[in-house]
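> @MW can you paste both from yesterday?
MW: sure, first one:
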Amino acid sequence: QVQLVESGGGLVQAGESLRLSCAASGRSIASINAMGWYRQAPGKQREFVAVITSRGSTNYADSVKGRFTISRDNAKITVYLQMNSLKPEDTAVYYCNADMVITARRYWGQGTQVTVSS
């Protein structure tokens, strides 16, 4: 079992920055492989934002490349999403996820709201 708790969301103006955090806990945290972020805007499907593997390899959605940076503290089992140059279209609930090594099971956090005003 893995529990994920996000924090850091809020209301900002376009062009500003936010940093999201996601802390993992539970009996199975040693088996976590990749961790990442998805987001869901009102009326839209949940979409991929960024991912980082246990070895530090990263991948980003085209819409956030060059603006968002994902990082990971393996000692704290925490993943971060630094979001710069935010745009109104980045407004969404941001969800953290963790993928397990052997089972490939995916766990989700409860989500954190990010609102960017124009």
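MW: second:
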Amino acid sequence: QVQLVDSGGGLVQAGGSLRLSCAASGSRFGFNFMGWYRQAPGKQRELVATITSGGATNYADAVKGRFTISRDNANAKNTVYLQMNSLEPDDTAVYYCNAEERVVNLNYWGRGTQVTVSS
């Protein structure tokens, strides 16, 4: 059974940094895309960043230049990270890890981790 465990959120002042982690396990096939989405109160869930198994990345315009997504596939680990710098109050949201499983193309979500940026 595939599981995604995301962590690393917290409370930080504007201008600060946080690093989110997401460990994916239980897949026979590995993962194509892995990434992060976020949902602020009263808003729809939105893409933050994605990364392919080959390392190609994609970012939302709002986070370009401030956030960096990376991935560790070594030794059957499937872990994705999101380094968030120069955080702004508008970055406050629940951040969800997402992964698309190869072959079967099923999509999985983590339970989310809260990021709160104070002004």
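> thanks! The chain has a mean pLDDT of 95.
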